[in-house]
Specification:
The chain is an alpha+beta fold. The chain has helices spanning 8-15, 25-45, 68-84, 145-148, 217-227, 245-255, 274-287, 319-331; strands at residues 55-59, 65-67, 87-92, 99-100, 108-116, 127-135, 155-163, 167-172, 178-183, 188-193, 204-206, 238-239, 258-261, 291-293, 314-317. The strands form three sheets. An eight-stranded mixed β-sheet has the order 4-3-5-6-7-8-9-10, with helices on both faces. A five-stranded mixed β-sheet has the order 12-11-13-15-14, with helices on both faces. The chain has a two-stranded antiparallel sheet with strand order 1-2. Helix 1 packs antiparallel against helix 2, helix 2 runs antiparallel to helix 3 (68-84) and helix 5 (217-227) packs across helix 8 (319-331). Bound molecules: 6-O-phosphono-alpha-D-fructofuranose (P6P).
Length: 338
Protein backbone atom coordinates (compact mmCIF):
# COMPACT_ATOMS: atom_id res chain seq x y z
CA UNK A 1 0.00 0.00 0.00
CA UNK A 2 1.26 3.46 -0.91
CA UNK A 3 3.14 4.75 2.16
CA UNK A 4 1.53 8.19 1.60
CA UNK A 5 -1.97 6.71 1.99
CA UNK A 6 -3.59 7.51 5.34
CA UNK A 7 -6.54 5.23 5.88
CA UNK A 8 -9.62 6.34 7.81
CA UNK A 9 -8.96 3.88 10.60
CA UNK A 10 -5.33 5.03 10.95
CA UNK A 11 -6.50 8.64 10.99
CA UNK A 12 -9.18 7.99 13.61
CA UNK A 13 -6.68 6.22 15.85
CA UNK A 14 -4.02 8.92 15.33
CA UNK A 15 -6.56 11.65 16.17
CA UNK A 16 -7.55 9.78 19.31
CA UNK A 17 -4.38 11.28 20.86
CA UNK A 18 -6.18 14.68 20.67
CA UNK A 19 -8.47 13.38 23.40
CA UNK A 20 -6.26 12.33 26.35
CA UNK A 21 -9.12 10.64 28.14
CA UNK A 22 -10.44 8.94 25.01
CA UNK A 23 -11.27 5.32 25.60
CA UNK A 24 -11.22 4.51 21.90
CA UNK A 25 -14.95 3.87 21.89
CA UNK A 26 -15.79 6.86 19.68
CA UNK A 27 -13.03 5.77 17.30
CA UNK A 28 -14.55 2.33 17.16
CA UNK A 29 -18.05 3.71 16.55
CA UNK A 30 -16.79 5.85 13.66
CA UNK A 31 -15.12 2.80 12.16
CA UNK A 32 -18.38 0.84 12.47
CA UNK A 33 -20.21 3.65 10.63
CA UNK A 34 -17.60 3.61 7.86
CA UNK A 35 -18.05 -0.16 7.45
CA UNK A 36 -21.81 0.23 7.06
CA UNK A 37 -21.16 3.03 4.56
CA UNK A 38 -19.07 0.66 2.43
CA UNK A 39 -21.83 -1.94 2.49
CA UNK A 40 -24.49 0.62 1.51
CA UNK A 41 -22.17 2.00 -1.16
CA UNK A 42 -21.96 -1.44 -2.75
CA UNK A 43 -25.76 -1.55 -3.19
CA UNK A 44 -26.05 2.11 -4.24
CA UNK A 45 -23.48 1.51 -6.97
CA UNK A 46 -25.48 -1.33 -8.50
CA UNK A 47 -28.97 -0.06 -7.70
CA UNK A 48 -29.80 0.03 -11.39
CA UNK A 49 -28.93 -3.64 -11.82
CA UNK A 50 -30.82 -5.27 -9.00
CA UNK A 51 -34.36 -5.01 -7.78
CA UNK A 52 -33.54 -2.27 -5.31
CA UNK A 53 -34.58 0.75 -7.31
CA UNK A 54 -37.89 2.40 -6.90
CA UNK A 55 -40.33 2.90 -4.10
CA UNK A 56 -41.69 0.46 -1.57
CA UNK A 57 -45.20 1.82 -1.91
CA UNK A 58 -45.05 2.96 1.71
CA UNK A 59 -44.60 6.37 3.31
CA UNK A 60 -42.48 7.27 6.34
CA UNK A 61 -43.26 9.50 9.28
CA UNK A 62 -42.40 12.44 7.06
CA UNK A 63 -45.17 11.28 4.73
CA UNK A 64 -42.46 10.84 2.09
CA UNK A 65 -42.40 7.89 -0.29
CA UNK A 66 -39.98 5.29 1.07
CA UNK A 67 -37.48 4.02 -1.47
CA UNK A 68 -36.24 0.41 -1.30
CA UNK A 69 -32.68 1.65 -0.82
CA UNK A 70 -33.84 3.79 2.11
CA UNK A 71 -34.88 0.66 3.96
CA UNK A 72 -31.73 -1.21 3.00
CA UNK A 73 -29.48 1.61 4.20
CA UNK A 74 -31.49 2.07 7.40
CA UNK A 75 -31.19 -1.61 8.24
CA UNK A 76 -27.45 -1.70 7.51
CA UNK A 77 -26.64 1.28 9.75
CA UNK A 78 -28.92 0.05 12.53
CA UNK A 79 -27.24 -3.35 12.35
CA UNK A 80 -23.71 -1.90 12.41
CA UNK A 81 -24.52 0.38 15.33
CA UNK A 82 -26.32 -2.39 17.22
CA UNK A 83 -23.41 -4.85 17.09
CA UNK A 84 -20.87 -2.14 17.96
CA UNK A 85 -21.65 -2.52 21.66
CA UNK A 86 -21.08 1.23 22.03
CA UNK A 87 -24.43 2.64 20.92
CA UNK A 88 -27.53 2.36 23.12
CA UNK A 89 -29.99 4.20 20.90
CA UNK A 90 -30.67 5.41 17.36
CA UNK A 91 -33.03 8.06 16.01
CA UNK A 92 -33.51 7.58 12.28
CA UNK A 93 -35.48 9.52 9.69
CA UNK A 94 -36.99 6.17 8.71
CA UNK A 95 -38.32 5.30 12.17
CA UNK A 96 -41.20 7.10 13.91
CA UNK A 97 -39.74 6.39 17.37
CA UNK A 98 -36.14 6.07 18.53
CA UNK A 99 -34.65 2.58 18.63
CA UNK A 100 -33.41 1.46 22.03
CA UNK A 101 -30.47 -0.97 21.91
CA UNK A 102 -30.01 -3.04 25.05
CA UNK A 103 -26.28 -2.62 25.59
CA UNK A 104 -25.48 -2.10 29.29
CA UNK A 105 -22.58 0.32 29.54
CA UNK A 106 -23.01 1.71 26.00
CA UNK A 107 -22.33 5.43 26.22
CA UNK A 108 -23.36 6.87 22.84
CA UNK A 109 -26.54 7.55 20.88
CA UNK A 110 -26.73 8.25 17.15
CA UNK A 111 -29.15 10.30 15.06
CA UNK A 112 -29.11 9.63 11.33
CA UNK A 113 -30.65 10.10 7.96
CA UNK A 114 -29.56 6.78 6.46
CA UNK A 115 -30.11 7.78 2.85
CA UNK A 116 -30.74 11.47 2.32
CA UNK A 117 -31.96 12.61 -1.07
CA UNK A 118 -33.31 9.16 -1.85
CA UNK A 119 -35.88 10.57 -4.27
CA UNK A 120 -32.86 11.05 -6.56
CA UNK A 121 -31.83 7.39 -6.51
CA UNK A 122 -33.71 6.37 -9.64
CA UNK A 123 -32.18 9.20 -11.67
CA UNK A 124 -28.63 8.45 -10.50
CA UNK A 125 -28.09 11.75 -8.69
CA UNK A 126 -25.70 11.78 -5.70
CA UNK A 127 -27.26 10.80 -2.36
CA UNK A 128 -25.87 10.56 1.13
CA UNK A 129 -25.96 9.39 4.73
CA UNK A 130 -25.89 11.96 7.55
CA UNK A 131 -25.04 11.11 11.17
CA UNK A 132 -24.55 12.71 14.58
CA UNK A 133 -23.05 11.09 17.68
CA UNK A 134 -23.90 12.24 21.23
CA UNK A 135 -22.96 10.95 24.66
CA UNK A 136 -25.81 9.29 26.56
CA UNK A 137 -26.92 11.69 29.30
CA UNK A 138 -29.84 9.82 30.90
CA UNK A 139 -29.44 7.65 33.99
CA UNK A 140 -29.60 3.87 33.66
CA UNK A 141 -28.65 1.49 30.88
CA UNK A 142 -31.50 2.30 28.49
CA UNK A 143 -31.63 5.45 26.43
CA UNK A 144 -34.54 7.87 26.83
CA UNK A 145 -35.95 10.75 24.79
CA UNK A 146 -33.72 13.06 26.84
CA UNK A 147 -30.68 11.55 25.13
CA UNK A 148 -32.00 12.48 21.67
CA UNK A 149 -33.25 15.97 22.50
CA UNK A 150 -29.80 17.38 23.18
CA UNK A 151 -28.71 20.61 21.51
CA UNK A 152 -26.38 20.31 18.55
CA UNK A 153 -23.60 21.83 20.64
CA UNK A 154 -23.48 18.53 22.55
CA UNK A 155 -22.47 16.47 19.50
CA UNK A 156 -19.18 14.64 20.00
CA UNK A 157 -18.95 13.85 16.30
CA UNK A 158 -20.92 14.38 13.09
CA UNK A 159 -20.44 13.61 9.46
CA UNK A 160 -21.81 12.43 6.18
CA UNK A 161 -21.17 9.85 3.50
CA UNK A 162 -21.58 11.06 -0.09
CA UNK A 163 -22.38 8.39 -2.67
CA UNK A 164 -21.39 10.36 -5.76
CA UNK A 165 -18.85 10.22 -8.58
CA UNK A 166 -16.72 8.79 -5.80
CA UNK A 167 -17.81 7.76 -2.32
CA UNK A 168 -16.56 9.97 0.47
CA UNK A 169 -16.86 10.07 4.22
CA UNK A 170 -16.49 13.55 5.74
CA UNK A 171 -16.59 13.97 9.52
CA UNK A 172 -15.47 16.01 12.49
CA UNK A 173 -14.94 15.23 16.17
CA UNK A 174 -14.53 18.90 17.02
CA UNK A 175 -10.99 19.41 15.74
CA UNK A 176 -11.65 20.43 12.15
CA UNK A 177 -13.19 18.59 9.19
CA UNK A 178 -11.48 15.86 7.17
CA UNK A 179 -12.62 14.04 4.03
CA UNK A 180 -11.86 10.45 3.03
CA UNK A 181 -12.41 8.93 -0.40
CA UNK A 182 -13.20 5.23 -0.79
CA UNK A 183 -10.57 3.43 -2.86
CA UNK A 184 -12.65 0.54 -4.29
CA UNK A 185 -9.51 -1.36 -5.26
CA UNK A 186 -8.63 -1.83 -1.59
CA UNK A 187 -12.08 -1.23 -0.06
CA UNK A 188 -10.69 1.47 2.21
CA UNK A 189 -11.47 5.12 2.87
CA UNK A 190 -8.27 7.13 2.43
CA UNK A 191 -7.56 10.72 3.49
CA UNK A 192 -8.13 12.91 0.42
CA UNK A 193 -9.36 16.25 1.84
CA UNK A 194 -7.43 17.13 5.02
CA UNK A 195 -8.61 20.05 7.19
CA UNK A 196 -11.45 21.30 4.96
CA UNK A 197 -12.21 25.03 5.29
CA UNK A 198 -15.03 26.84 3.51
CA UNK A 199 -13.44 29.29 0.99
CA UNK A 200 -13.91 32.92 1.96
CA UNK A 201 -14.44 33.89 -1.71
CA UNK A 202 -17.92 32.43 -2.25
CA UNK A 203 -19.87 32.97 -5.44
CA UNK A 204 -22.70 30.46 -5.24
CA UNK A 205 -26.09 30.28 -3.64
CA UNK A 206 -28.00 27.02 -3.36
CA UNK A 207 -31.80 27.02 -3.00
CA UNK A 208 -34.84 25.49 -4.66
CA UNK A 209 -35.64 28.53 -6.79
CA UNK A 210 -38.95 26.89 -7.66
CA UNK A 211 -40.18 27.84 -4.17
CA UNK A 212 -39.30 31.52 -4.68
CA UNK A 213 -42.87 32.80 -4.61
CA UNK A 214 -43.47 31.03 -1.24
CA UNK A 215 -40.37 32.37 0.52
CA UNK A 216 -40.46 35.13 3.17
CA UNK A 217 -39.94 38.58 1.63
CA UNK A 218 -36.42 38.95 3.02
CA UNK A 219 -35.29 35.71 1.36
CA UNK A 220 -36.80 36.84 -1.94
CA UNK A 221 -34.96 40.17 -1.70
CA UNK A 222 -31.70 38.38 -0.86
CA UNK A 223 -32.06 36.12 -3.90
CA UNK A 224 -32.60 39.21 -6.05
CA UNK A 225 -29.44 40.68 -4.44
CA UNK A 226 -27.52 37.53 -5.44
CA UNK A 227 -28.66 38.08 -9.04
CA UNK A 228 -27.57 41.74 -9.28
CA UNK A 229 -24.55 42.71 -11.39
CA UNK A 230 -21.82 43.93 -9.02
CA UNK A 231 -18.27 42.86 -9.90
CA UNK A 232 -16.56 43.99 -6.64
CA UNK A 233 -18.76 41.55 -4.69
CA UNK A 234 -18.52 38.73 -7.28
CA UNK A 235 -22.20 39.14 -8.17
CA UNK A 236 -24.27 37.83 -9.82
CA UNK A 237 -23.61 34.62 -7.87
CA UNK A 238 -24.08 31.28 -9.60
CA UNK A 239 -27.05 29.13 -8.61
CA UNK A 240 -26.31 25.48 -7.89
CA UNK A 241 -28.97 23.14 -6.48
CA UNK A 242 -28.84 19.35 -6.63
CA UNK A 243 -31.73 18.54 -4.32
CA UNK A 244 -29.62 16.26 -2.13
CA UNK A 245 -28.53 18.11 0.99
CA UNK A 246 -25.32 16.09 1.33
CA UNK A 247 -24.27 16.85 -2.26
CA UNK A 248 -25.22 20.53 -2.03
CA UNK A 249 -23.49 20.92 1.34
CA UNK A 250 -20.36 19.10 0.16
CA UNK A 251 -20.02 21.44 -2.82
CA UNK A 252 -20.39 24.46 -0.54
CA UNK A 253 -17.78 23.05 1.85
CA UNK A 254 -15.22 22.71 -0.95
CA UNK A 255 -16.15 25.60 -3.26
CA UNK A 256 -17.81 28.04 -0.90
CA UNK A 257 -21.35 29.34 -1.02
CA UNK A 258 -24.60 29.42 0.90
CA UNK A 259 -27.15 26.61 1.18
CA UNK A 260 -30.68 27.66 2.11
CA UNK A 261 -33.85 25.76 2.89
CA UNK A 262 -36.10 28.59 4.11
CA UNK A 263 -39.57 28.28 5.54
CA UNK A 264 -42.39 28.42 3.00
CA UNK A 265 -46.15 28.72 3.37
CA UNK A 266 -46.39 24.93 2.89
CA UNK A 267 -43.54 24.29 5.37
CA UNK A 268 -43.61 27.14 7.91
CA UNK A 269 -40.87 25.44 9.93
CA UNK A 270 -38.87 24.56 6.84
CA UNK A 271 -38.45 21.04 5.46
CA UNK A 272 -35.13 19.82 6.79
CA UNK A 273 -34.95 17.98 10.11
CA UNK A 274 -33.02 19.42 13.02
CA UNK A 275 -31.72 16.23 14.65
CA UNK A 276 -30.30 14.34 11.69
CA UNK A 277 -29.86 16.85 8.87
CA UNK A 278 -29.38 20.40 10.17
CA UNK A 279 -27.45 19.74 13.40
CA UNK A 280 -24.81 17.42 11.90
CA UNK A 281 -24.38 19.68 8.86
CA UNK A 282 -24.21 22.79 11.05
CA UNK A 283 -21.53 21.12 13.19
CA UNK A 284 -19.48 20.32 10.08
CA UNK A 285 -19.93 23.80 8.58
CA UNK A 286 -18.90 25.57 11.80
CA UNK A 287 -15.88 23.28 12.15
CA UNK A 288 -14.94 24.31 8.57
CA UNK A 289 -15.12 28.01 9.50
CA UNK A 290 -18.64 28.69 8.29
CA UNK A 291 -21.91 29.67 9.95
CA UNK A 292 -25.27 27.91 10.36
CA UNK A 293 -28.48 29.57 11.56
CA UNK A 294 -32.25 29.41 11.17
CA UNK A 295 -32.21 32.75 9.34
CA UNK A 296 -33.31 34.69 12.40
CA UNK A 297 -29.94 34.90 14.14
CA UNK A 298 -30.44 31.63 16.03
CA UNK A 299 -27.42 29.34 15.77
CA UNK A 300 -28.68 25.93 14.61
CA UNK A 301 -26.52 24.14 17.18
CA UNK A 302 -28.16 26.07 20.03
CA UNK A 303 -31.75 25.29 19.07
CA UNK A 304 -33.38 23.20 21.82
CA UNK A 305 -35.00 20.14 20.20
CA UNK A 306 -38.48 19.22 21.46
CA UNK A 307 -39.28 16.27 19.19
CA UNK A 308 -37.36 13.71 17.13
CA UNK A 309 -38.48 14.79 13.67
CA UNK A 310 -38.86 18.51 14.13
CA UNK A 311 -37.93 20.76 11.25
CA UNK A 312 -36.17 24.10 11.05
CA UNK A 313 -35.41 26.65 8.35
CA UNK A 314 -31.68 26.42 7.68
CA UNK A 315 -29.06 28.76 6.19
CA UNK A 316 -25.53 27.44 6.24
CA UNK A 317 -22.22 28.11 4.52
CA UNK A 318 -19.83 31.02 4.20
CA UNK A 319 -20.04 33.28 7.25
CA UNK A 320 -20.56 36.54 5.31
CA UNK A 321 -23.32 35.04 3.15
CA UNK A 322 -25.30 33.81 6.16
CA UNK A 323 -24.96 37.27 7.72
CA UNK A 324 -26.08 38.90 4.44
CA UNK A 325 -29.25 36.82 4.09
CA UNK A 326 -30.08 37.36 7.76
CA UNK A 327 -29.80 41.13 7.28
CA UNK A 328 -32.35 40.93 4.45
CA UNK A 329 -34.68 38.71 6.50
CA UNK A 330 -34.48 41.17 9.41
CA UNK A 331 -34.98 44.21 7.15
CA UNK A 332 -38.13 42.78 5.53
CA UNK A 333 -39.44 40.84 8.51
CA UNK A 334 -42.44 43.15 8.82
CA UNK A 335 -43.37 42.68 5.13
CA UNK A 336 -45.79 39.79 4.61
CA UNK A 337 -44.69 37.32 1.90
CA UNK A 338 -46.67 38.18 -1.24
P1 LIG B 1 -36.80 20.01 -2.31
C1 LIG B 1 -34.08 15.39 0.03
O1 LIG B 1 -35.43 14.95 -0.05
C2 LIG B 1 -34.02 16.48 1.10
O2 LIG B 1 -34.43 15.95 2.34
C3 LIG B 1 -32.63 17.07 1.17
O3 LIG B 1 -31.63 16.15 0.91
C4 LIG B 1 -32.67 18.18 0.13
O4 LIG B 1 -31.80 19.25 0.43
C5 LIG B 1 -34.13 18.63 0.17
O5 LIG B 1 -34.89 17.54 0.72
C6 LIG B 1 -34.67 18.94 -1.21
O6 LIG B 1 -36.01 19.39 -1.05
O7 LIG B 1 -38.10 20.48 -1.71
O8 LIG B 1 -35.96 21.16 -2.83
O9 LIG B 1 -36.93 18.90 -3.30
Amino acid sequence: MNSKLITLNDFILNRQKDFPYASGELSSLLSDISLAAKIVNREVNKAGLVDILGATGNSNVQNEEVQKLDIYANNEFISALSVSGLCCGIASEENDEFISINKPGATYIVTMDPLDGSSNIDVNVSIGTIFSIYRKVSIGDSCTMEDFLQKGTEQVAAGYVLYGSSTMMVYSTGNGVNGFTLDPSIGTFCLSHPDIKIPKESKTYSVNQGNFIKFPEGVKQYIKYCQENDKPTNRPYGLRYIGSMVADLHRNLLKGGLFMYPSTEAAPKGKLRLLYECNPMAYIVEQAGGKATDGNGNRILELQPTELHQRTPVFLGADFMVKDVESFIKKYSSVEAV
